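Predict the structure of DUF4371 domain-containing protein.
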Amino acid sequence: MALRILRKVASDIKTNEFYTIMADETKDKSNQEQVVVVFRHVYEDLNVHVDFVGFHLENSMTPLH
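Done. Here is the predicted structure for DUF4371 domain-containing protein.
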């Protein structure tokens, strides 16, 4: 079911000209880093639609040098 939803979100994004992918990092109560992923796209009638994809655990968000 989750894959079907993601495919629908991808299909909606492909058919719209304007979209953005937003990602933000935060630490949870147990001090583990999580990334939140959200897709936002605009329909032809200029209505904005937001799809929350989920929280994803990360080992580290420290940039590589």
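Strands lie at 18-27, 33-42, 48-58.
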